[in-house]
Structures are given as C-alpha cells and as structure tokens.
Amino acid sequence: MTDLSQLVKAYDVRGVVPDQWGEPLAELFGAAFVTVTGADAIVTGHDMRPSSPGLSRAFARGAASRGAKVTEIGLCSTDQLYFASGKLGLPGAMFTASHNPAQYNGIKMCRAGAAPVGQNTGLAEIRELVEQWSETGLPASDATPGEVTAHDMLADYATHLRTLVDLGSIRHLKVVVDAGNGMGGHTVPTVFDGLPLDLVPMYFELDGTFPNHEANPLDPKNIVDLQEKVRETGADIGIAFDGDADRCFVVDERGEPVSPSAITALVAARELAKHPGSTVIHNLITSWTVPEVVKEHGGTPVRTRVGHSFIKQEMARTGAVFGGEHSAHYYFRDFWNADTGMLAALHVLAALGGQDGTLSALVAEYDRYAASGEINTAVDDQAGRTAAVRAAYADRPGTETDELDGLTVTGDGWWFNLRPSNTEPLLRLNVEARDAGLMADVRDEVLAIVRA
To answer: pLDDT tier at 310 (50, 70, 90 boundaries)?
Structure first.
C-alpha cells in the first residue's frame, strides 16, 4: 500500500509536486473526499501556483466520478473558499500550499459551513482510501457523474466582508499592501474598491514562483520591502498577506511590526463592543495581553491548543465571537468560525481610521509585555530535550506547569511554551515576560537546556 504519511499532515495535504504527488493522486483525493463526507455537491478553489489549476481540476474529476456536482470558484484566497463553503452550504477543497515555496502544493478541506477536516474529522479516512486506491485503482461507481460548473464568487465575498465592518465613515488612510505575488493581489482590489483608502500595491502580480520574496510574512526578512515602502511613502499602515491570503500581518506608520497578539486584542475589543459578554478564543502562545483585554471588555477568554482545527472546534463549542492565534490566523463567528486575514485587516483599518492618532499609539495599549517570538531549534530527540527542560523547572519555587500543548511553565512575571513541530524535527520556543531583560534571561536559560 502506498504510504502517504509524508503528504497528509495534521490538518491538510501538503507536499512537493511532482515528486510526492500530482494530478493522479489529486483525482483519488477528490473521490475519497466525496466518499467520506457523503456529499452530493462540493465547491473547489485554487491559488496562483503553476500546478494548482491542474490539481484542482483533477480533484473535481474524482469528485464528479462519485456523483457529486462540483462548483469551481477558480482563483481565490483560502478564506474566499471558506466563504463559498459557508454561503453555499457545501463541503470545500482549496488547492494551496499557503506560504511554502513554489514547488509545494496542497489541499485544505472543509465540510459544509467551513467546518474543518483534520485527522480526527475525516482526513485519516480520506488518506486510507487514497492509499488503498493508489494500489488497486479507483473502483467503479454506479453514480451518474456529477456536473462541473464555474462560479465566480469574488464580488460576493467582498460584499459579505464589508457588511461586517463599517468603513464608510473612516478618515482617509494611505495603506501599503504587500501581496507577495499571492492571492491578496487578486482579492484586495475588489475588497478595497470604493473605500476611503489610498492603496499602494506591492507585488500584486499573481506568480506562484514568488519572484520577489517568500509569501511568508511571519519571517521578518519577508516584510523588509513593506517596511521600507511604508516609511518611504509616509503611509498610515502596512499590511502583508501570505500566499493564500488567509493571514494578515501589520506594520505601523514607522514600519515597525505589530504583533499578532496585539491585533488579536484590538479585534477582540471591537467584537466585544458589538457582542457584549461574548467568549473569545486564544491559543496558549498569544500574549497575556489578550485574556487581560478580553476581561477588561467584559468578555470571557478561553485558552486552547495551537492549530486551526482546535480553534474552530472551541469556537463552535463555546459560541465564541472571535479567536486569534500568534501566527496571525484570525477566526470570526460571523465568518462560519473560519479564519480570514482580510476581515482582520478591515477591522484594523476601521479602528485606525475611526480616530485621529497613529497606529503605533493605537496598538500601544495592546502590547504590554516583552516577547521572544517563536524560536525554532533542530533536535534529534524532541521528547528527550523537552523532558530535560521539564526536569529543570519541576521543583522551582513559584512555578506552574501545564501540558495542554507541549510544555508551558509560568513563573513570577514570565512564561514560556516549548512544543514539538508536527512536521519537522524541531522544538518551538515562545517566551513572554513583564520586561525585556527578564524575557531574555528566561529565553537564554531554556535554549541552553534545549541545545545542550
């Protein structure tokens, strides 16, 4: 039996094309997706990578062969695919490898209403069928093949987002947007059309080879161009999207990055003003500021594991109005509990344009602690190095430990989280403290143990 363990991840399918997969496997994934979900109709979309149209069409063939009608929305951002899944009430599949290099591609799948498909919610069964069929061939089906039709939903997506945030009365803003040659270049012009914004576009040309920089704004080197352009043009704000434009990153008028935790706190405050007393989800690596702000605005913070499937499950369980992650994924109840960087960006623009101050002044109250950012260390033995850190802090007075997701240790004015990567031999460290000196002390002590 073909082993797809390197291709099927915790939340999606992702690998190198054509080395690890291609259109024949994509067709099997389409057939398996329909079989597992029981869907009689689905919606598909794809990003700008050279391999995406072919993979998406092969997936549609496989789905149609099982009798499902397929609505193809074509070029789109991942959150636009979630919109289509929610609006049409159909399971969906998005062909993208997000911020990964050009040779990669993948599939993000969801059930109707953008409900996540992960290892425990259908992805394991899909993998099992594809592994089996890749050896035996796709079995014959009695179903009448479904029709495949095209349906552009970009305008509907833009209209929906703009009904959720009032931007009509904001002051005029100069906004630099770096799309990284990704799908933001497709969605931003339509979403921003007619708003009181002076848009300065960067790298809006759709190009899945990423000729200017990787479409991964979480890496500081990939926002250098944006920072320079904001300073050069005297812009009020800079926004960067990743490759599939489901995450947004913000820099202020000085070109300084605004942490995703600060954006989470800001948007949480706005959502709680609209929906008093609601729950807000945050993963365990977001800043202490987030639960503090949620409580200050009358909401209930709920801490969860890292990862969109966990966030979305908690959103559904608690009825939360909003959720945020340190990686700049932002989830909204008004968007089928799915993540949308574009809606988060509109909230920031509304907050900035609704007052006269700078962005740096606006976000200062949401940035209360010193943070290390995520530090990755390659290790041979993830469990062994984690155990060494656990042992070092086990009997230290005044510390508390939990293992909701990796190892979290909290002390007087500081905390750190150390967790293994799901896909690489890495340990990921995040540290936060009341001041930069204490943060550096804790960071250096933990790294010395990890790297011993």
So the answer is: confident
Q: How far apart are alpha carbons 41 and 90 in whole angstroms?
A: 7
How far from 315 is each of 262, 323, 333, 355, 386, CA to CA, in Å? 20, 7, 7, 30, 30
The token pair that represents 418 in the structure block: 């150390």
Name the strand (E) or helix (H) holding 134: helix 123-136
User: Using CA atoms, how far apart are residues 217 and 41, in angstroms rounded to an integer?
Assistant: 35
Provide the number of structural domains found in the chain.
Answer: 3
Q: Which of 98, 259, 261, 287 is catalytic?
A: 98
The whole-number pLDDT of residue 432 equals: 98
Active site residue 98: yes
Q: What is the pLDDT averaged over residues 335-345?
A: 97
What is the rounded distance in angstroms from the CA atom of residue 18 to the CA atom of residue 20? 6
Residue (of 307, 286, 404) closest to 12 by Cα position = 307
Distance CA 44, CA 279 (A): 32
Within-domain flag for 7: no
Residues 298 and 401 in one domain: no
